Amino acid sequence: DFGRSSELAFVVEPSDDIAVQEQPLILYCQVEGIQPITITWRKNGAMIVDSENAFMLANGSLYVSRFQRVRADGSSDEGEYDCMAQNHYGLVVSRKAKIQAATMSDFHVHPQNAVVEEGGVARFQCQIHGLPEPVILWHKNSMPVNTDNERYTLLPKGVLQITGLRAEDSGIFHCVATNIANVKFSREARLTVSGSHSTVYKDPMILVGPENLTLTVHQTAVLECIATGNPRPIVSWSRLDGRPIGVEGIQVLGTGNLMISDLTVQHSGIYVCAANKPGTRVRRTAQGSLVVQAPAEFVQHPQSISRPVGTTAIFTCVAQGEPPPQITWLRNGQILETSDHIKLKNNNSTLSIYGINQTDEAIYQCLAENSAGSTQASARLTVLWADGLPSPPQAVRAETVSATTIQVSWEKPLQNTKEIIGYVLHIRKAADPVEMEYQEAVSKSTFQQLVTDLEPSTSYSFYIKAYTSRGASKASEVTVVSTLGEVPAMPSLFIKVINSTAVQATWEPSIKLGQHEGFKLFYRKVHLTQYTGPVLLASNVTAYNITHLDASVVYEVKLLAYNQHGDGDSTVRFVSLRETVERTVLNPPCDCMKDEQNNKTSTTGIIIGIHIGVTCIIFCILFLMFGYRGRLLMCKNVQEQLSTPQIPRSQRSAAGLVLNGAARRDRDDRDLNGKQLDMNELERLFPASPSQEQQDKGMMSAHSPPAPHDDTQISTLPLDEFNIIEEQPDPLPKAPHGGSPPAPAPDHGPANEG
């Protein structure tokens, strides 16, 4: 029962046919449903009136007594026929049946004479057009060709192939074409087999490759491929897309022709014939495309439905085929016109009827059609209507409250109001399709509704329905009203101080402000009530400089956007120039030319300073190195002085031993190869400066432990200024007679630096 309305549906529909000239033709049509049912026929969309030549049988079929392709009056019995069935539930139309006259043309390709060497391949071909497709047979020497001979291959398109030619294959060939319209004979062609089988090598060569074919599912395709060469090439087949050809329904005719039986859409593709030389990679290829079409068929049929008044009815009809079919909808046999409440979506696969009423009750048909065929399915819409339902609500009014709000009011229906359980307000933008409609429920005691969250400057349509437990009333009259326009949003304002008498006001681009015509800028001193302005600015302006200001006061700056609906909210900012003035006094304005000159001078100075610094470091290192060497030399001289026998104190100067210029001259004359003092000896000779308390005591020790010393201080003392000051020592013990000079007295304190 899929695709059928139980009230009225087709059991048998007319099918495509090929009629024979002057022969009778019967087109079948059988309908079931609730009687009475009336059946009529159409040809090319026009009603067929019963006549002597064409009339309807009792079972609803159409009978054509003598089919004629062209009548005396110029008319033709060829065309597209369909049958229509109608009862009080509606009307349905059958699929279109294409009727054509059987014909046969003359041969437009005849076989040609051929001379082929023994062992070679011969091919004859003849072509002829006809309806239905003619059957072509071959005769040799006026006798049918023996098809039991495996060397003879007959292809459906009128091709004869003979392989492994022998002398007895020579003869005269012609073809015979036959269909229900006629029988015709082609011209004759002579085949001559010459010489003996050649042993000369020949590269493989494809004489005839596959041609492009367009067929319908369940038909048979024959792809021809005939190749020559010595040795005889091996013919193989493949698909260009790499998919396997398969084995089911596949057969090889002769030496290389590919036959595919019971075609499906999956067999579509490009097929490649290859002629390969045995044992090598030498090959030649040829290719041809196969397109398999499939007539339209339904995947999902529309289903009959029953819906209450005011609701939505949806029919779904999904069809497939190759090429993809086109879907058309009929309502009681007439092409369905879309409107505000009848919509087609998803490539016409979905039919939606919004707010149905009793006039929408009908039989709806889905017709799917492509180049390979057509089909149809039907379903009935029943509109439920209960007696005693309320009449439509009255006096529906809509008033604009704001840019986003509309007040809708109405009055209760005039009839059958006792069972009302509530109202439903239907809302949509006037420019939107019906399927974009939405609803708001209202209690039965409420006769107004405030509709919010609407868009500014937009028209909306409203209608009301009263609902009972048994169904809804018919829709009220539709009222349309527009919301008010909306003023622009508040802009973002920023103030930047330029100098002591000017500021710059900037704001965000206008894209964030909605629809507006421009900006208004105001400013004033905060202690005044009167603004300066408005300064009118275009919508693409985003900055404005305010000049000639008083630096001693605070200013208020205000900015707003405006459009045809009025001024938007303003943004206010306060700014003071006093800090700028104070900074100017403390930091006078710069001379840009002077600053630039100073920048250049500063750069030069930095470079020179770096060079001077590096030079100073080098000299300091050299100075330290030579100073340390000088100290070592001086220490040698002191050692020599101390190692000599001590003279009586009376012979010494009270100031002690003095290293002066004369001593330095004497030192130069001495041998410089004496023993060097180590650091401990040097520290004993030149200890660190004693504390103030020790200096006051005037104590000195030549043999005290070495104290920490400062190399830098030592290195900066010139040798000429070093003095060895010796205090009065304690009485020395007597030395043994004839012994060495007595050793120095033990230290009683740190030595003083002279």
CATH superfamily of the largest domain: Immunoglobulins
Count of the domains? 5
- Please give the alpha-carbon distance between the first and last residues: 134 Å
What is the count of DSSP helices, taking H or I runs of 4+ residues? 6
Rounded Rg: 60 Å
Largest sheet: 6 strands, mixed
**Assembly state here?**
single chain
Work out the strand percent. Answer: 35-45%
Structural class: mainly beta
What is the CATH top level name of the largest domain? Mainly Beta
Principal-axis shape: flat
Which CATH architecture of the largest domain is right? Sandwich
Structure, described:
The chain is mainly beta. The N and C termini lie far apart (134 Å). β39 and β40 form a beta hairpin. The strands form 16 sheets. Strands 2, 5, 6, 9, 10 and 11 form a six-stranded mixed sheet that branches. It contains six helices and 58 strands. The protein folds into five domains: 9-101, Immunoglobulins (Immunoglobulin-like), CATH 2.60.40.10; 104-287, Immunoglobulins (Immunoglobulin-like); 301-384, Sandwich (Immunoglobulin-like), CATH 2.60.40; 394-482, Immunoglobulin-like (Sandwich); 494-576, Immunoglobulin-like. The longest helix is centred in the last third of the chain and has 52 residues, at 592-643. The protein is flat and about 125 Å long. The chain crosses the membrane at residues 606-626.
